């Protein structure tokens, strides 16, 4: 399915890196350790699409995949159709802040179970971050956490950049800029949707921002190969990367407190409670702590004030979240409708909403129960753009509610849910 690479930038004669990697990877024998590849990129830039496509390639065999999503309803893993056991969903929070410790524990656990023979001997791990992830703390953690460095090595950082929206996104969202600046591989996605002038401007911007990164293009027709993106020895900051990158990593090193195992014990207790709540949820009891699905007469799922996704399944606040990472202007919320929705009414509403509010709606994705259809439909919106729907082969579980996850900036759920109520009412009519 995946066709050959489309290298835009050939690094056959690399310049010496003027900026030394500020955090040495403690690995002495990198090849003996399991490589971890991080796949990042701004909201909706095409990470999951690229990953799903690469996973269909035999070259991606024996890969364990971790997916991290913002928002309490994970959708991406449904789109990455593969050996279910290999895909681990790290939901309810962002890797760079709320669930960083969960990432470390999950990776350490994967490595240990593989070593013990409990898991197949996969040969790499790919971690897909949320679209708002700051890569600096993730890179720092993977390179320095003593629970990981004896077993794992950070082998690469791939960032996707949307050909249609990338230029504007790099200018307005610091997370996107950091992702593209730190990566050692950049994939410009959606080149089928952008005209030549737009693509050229973005290419020039990326070349200036991160001249050392290898660059590739992806569209509906072509994508880089697994070897292009997920092979390599040890991550090193792109040749000629700006001085900011060194400063970002140094800042993480300065912020990182010494590892406190007592705190881990508390977190393990929290996780046990969260796992129990998750199990209850899976049993059909939709208790999400402060939000009660049993009470969504208005088609909503109320998480009150903490709309940043930084609470776990049990509804506990995760106090180690750094609110400055994503800023108080960003909100995550999920609208839920129990009864099937009318497709025409829903799509008209989504189109109008994205046209009117696209600046503030960074991302919308959802799984929809369409009246008259057996199979679920996945909808995607990125800023002003509503993408073609995708039908899934089957519902993932017994829950047939439609769920629409929004990631917004300067837009509260109230404004969106009031108009959504009319969509819910039309579905009932
Ligand atoms: N035409 C076209 N559409 C694409 C391409 N890549 C992704 N898309 C669409 O863009 C939308 C968002 O893609 P995703 O792969 O979900 O993006 P993402 O980066 O994983 O999104 P988040 O996880 O929410 O940050 C989906 O509707 C995709 O089908 C592409 O190369 N061409």
UniProtKB/TrEMBL annotation:
Parts forming coiled coils: none
Ranges of biased composition (kind: Basic and acidic residues): 253-315
Start and end residues of each CobW C-terminal domain: 330-424
Catalytic activity: GTP + H2O = GDP + phosphate + H(+)
Keyword annotations of the record: Chaperone, Hydrolase, Nucleotide-binding
Region feature Disordered, mapped onto this chain: 1-31, 253-324
Family classification: Belongs to the SIMIBI class G3E GTPase family. ZNG1 subfamily.
Function: Zinc chaperone that directly transfers zinc cofactor to target proteins, thereby activating them. Zinc is transferred from the CXCC motif in the GTPase domain to the zinc binding site in target proteins in a process requiring GTP hydrolysis.
Protein name, entry field: CobW family GTP-binding protein
Organism annotation: Rhodoplanes azumiensis
Taxonomic path: Bacteria, Pseudomonadati, Pseudomonadota, Alphaproteobacteria, Hyphomicrobiales
């Amino acid at each position: 399915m995946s066709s050959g690479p489309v290298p835009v930038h050939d690094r056959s004669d690399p310049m010496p890196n003027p900026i030394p990697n500020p955090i040495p990877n403690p690995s002495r024998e990198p090849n003996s350790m399991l490589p971890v590849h991080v796949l990042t990129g701004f909201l909706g830039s095409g990470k999951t699409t690229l990953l799903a496509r690469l996973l269909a390639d035999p070259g991606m065999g024996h890969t364990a995949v971790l997916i991290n999503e913002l928002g309490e309803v994970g959708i991406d893993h449904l789109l990455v159709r593969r050996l279910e056991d290999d895909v681990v969903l790290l939901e309810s929070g962002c890797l760079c802040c709320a669930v960083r410790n969960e990432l470390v524990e999950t990776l350490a656990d994967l490595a240990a179970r593989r070593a013990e023979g409990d898991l197949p001997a996969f040969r790499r791990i790919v971690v897909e971050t949320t679209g708002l992830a700051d890569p600096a703390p993730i890179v720092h953690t993977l390179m320095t956490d003593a629970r990981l460095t004896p077993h794992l090595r950070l082998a690469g950082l791939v960032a996707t950049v949307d050909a249609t929206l990338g230029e504007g996104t790099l200018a307005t969202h610091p997370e996107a800029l950091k992702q593209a600046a730190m990566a050692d591989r950049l994939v410009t996605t959606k080149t089928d949707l952008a005209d030549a002038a737009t693509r050229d401007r973005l290419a020039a911007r990326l070349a200036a921002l991160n001249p050392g990164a290898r660059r590739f293009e992806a569209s509906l027709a072509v994508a880089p190969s697994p070897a292009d993106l997920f092979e390599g020895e040890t991550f090193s900051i792109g040749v000629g990367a700006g001085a900011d990158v060194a400063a970002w990593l140094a800042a993480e090193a300065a912020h990182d407190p010494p590892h406190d195992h007592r705190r881990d014990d508390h977190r393990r207790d929290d996780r046990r409670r969260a796992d129990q709540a998750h199990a209850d949820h899976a049993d059909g009891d939709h208790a999400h702590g402060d939000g009660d699905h049993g009470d969504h007469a208005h088609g909503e799922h109320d998480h009150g004030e903490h709309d940043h996704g930084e609470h776990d399944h049990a509804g506990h606040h995760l106090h180690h979240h750094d609110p400055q990472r994503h800023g108080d202007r960003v909100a995550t919320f999920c609208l839920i409708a129990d009864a099937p929705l009318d497709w025409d009414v829903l799509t008209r509403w989504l189109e109008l909403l994205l046209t009117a509010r696209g600046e503030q709606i960074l991302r919308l994705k959802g799984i929809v129960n369409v009246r008259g259809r057996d199979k679920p439909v996945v909808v995607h919106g990125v800023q002003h753009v509503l993408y073609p729907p995708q039908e899934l082969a089957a519902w993932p579980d017994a829950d047939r509610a439609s769920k629409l996850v929004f990631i917004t900036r300067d837009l509260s759920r109230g404004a969106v849910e009031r108009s959504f109520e009319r969509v819910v009412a039309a579905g009932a009519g």
